[in-house]
Amino acid sequence: MSTYTQLLYQIVFSTKNREKTLTKNNRDELFKYISGLLKNKKCHLYIINGVEDHIHIITHIHPTISLSSLIKDIKVASSLHIKEKNLFLDFIS
Predict the structure, then answer these.
(1) Nearest to 27 by CA among 92, 91, 70
(2) Three state DSSP letters for 7-72
(3) Any idea which of 17-21, 47-51, 73-77, 86-90 has the lowest mean pLDDT?
(4) Cα angle: 16, vertex 17, 18; to 5 degrees
(5) Widest distance between CA atoms in the chain
(6) At a CB cut-off of 8 Å and minimum separation 6, what does 13 contact?
(7) Residue 12 bridge partners (DSSP)
(8) How far is 52 from 39, CA to CA, in rounded Å?
(9) What is the pLDDT of residue 36?
(10) HSE (CB half, 13 Å, CA atoms) of 51?
(11) 78: helix, coil or strand?
């Protein structure tokens, strides 16, 4: 027997204190990075987008991945990526 799951999640991340630090010119690079992270975790990304103070992710999460660990991994990895690449000048984690 096989198992079929279809759970879609909308995940929203906000910047600290809703500061408008996610400038448009580097947002695409952040989205590509998060997309790759989700792909490596066997998750299917439907859409990712955002504005200066938050991002939205619509994704299917692989059944072997817990939601809490995925969110932690995205937050930690994306924050480090932003700092290493200096993508957003006023970004505070």
Answers:
(1) 91
(2) CEEEEEEECHHHCCCCCHHHHHHHHHHHHHHHHHCCCEEEEEEEECCEEEEEEECCCCCCHHHHHH
(3) 86-90
(4) 85
(5) 52
(6) 54, 55, 57, 74, 75, 78
(7) 56
(8) 24
(9) 98
(10) 4
(11) helix
| Rg, the chain, Cα only | 14
Share of the chain above pLDDT 90, in %: 84
Measured in Å, how far apart are the chain's first and last C-alpha atoms?
Answer: 45
The whole-angstrom separation of Cα 39 and Cα 30 is: 14
* Dihedral sign of CA atoms 59, 65, 66, 72 in order: negative
Query: Tokens 């930690």 map to which residue?
Result: 76
* Domain residue extents for the chain: 8-77
Token pair listed for 24? 């448009």
The CATH fold of domain 8-77? Alpha-Beta Plaits (3.30.70)
